[in-house]
Write a structure and sequence with these properties.
Keywords: Signal. With 157 residues, the protein is of the alpha+beta class. The protein has 2 helices and 8 strands; from the N terminus they run αββββββαββ.
Length: 157
């Protein structure tokens, strides 16, 4: 069972990357593409505990000012929210980007706005630049009713 789960999670990440690759607007410079990914588990949730059965995968492509992603969450109760937060692997942190809630899959594209148009519900260009520069400083997590602080979590790479 464990081997199947690892393979299915890897397949989900690969499929998600392919989906978002087609969704990101074309750019004149392919070097400006950044890929991000994470494997989500309940054991990684901080402060914990997370859902020990839960698993997930996140894949994203950033091109220019647009982040497109696919998020998969399995073996958890229905998700109620999903986010990208900023914090090291050992701590919880504040929300930086809201994501569509997976059921069990979600995907979308978010275009960053100029910093002077910042509001609590938007991603700014400087926040996106910081994410691209240091993805390991960020994590993805999925919440549900039983695990409101977070059911599953994975640090970005």
């Amino acid at each position: 069972m464990r081997t199947w789960l690892v393979r299915s999670t890897a397949l989900a990440v690969a499929a998600g990357a392919a989906i978002v690759a087609g969704a990101v607007p074309a750019s004149s410079n392919e070097a400006d593409v950044t890929t991000l990914h994470a494997v989500l588990t309940g054991a990684a949730e901080r402060p914990g505990p997370g859902d020990t059965d839960g698993r997930g995968a996140f894949a994203a492509i950033v091109r220019g000012d647009t982040l497109c992603y696919t998020l998969v969450a399995v073996r958890i109760e229905p998700a109620t929210a999903a986010h990208i937060h900023i914090a090291p692997p050992t701590a919880p942190g504040p929300i930086v980007i809201g994501l569509d809630t997976p059921d069990p899959v979600s995907h979308g594209c978010i275009t960053a706005v100029p910093d002077d148009q910042n509001s609590t519900s938007t991603l700014t260009e400087s926040e996106l630049a910081a994410l691209v520069a240091n993805p390991g400083d960020y994590y993805v997590n999925v919440h549900n009713a039983s695990f409101q602080p977070g059911a599953i979590r994975g640090q970005l790479r």
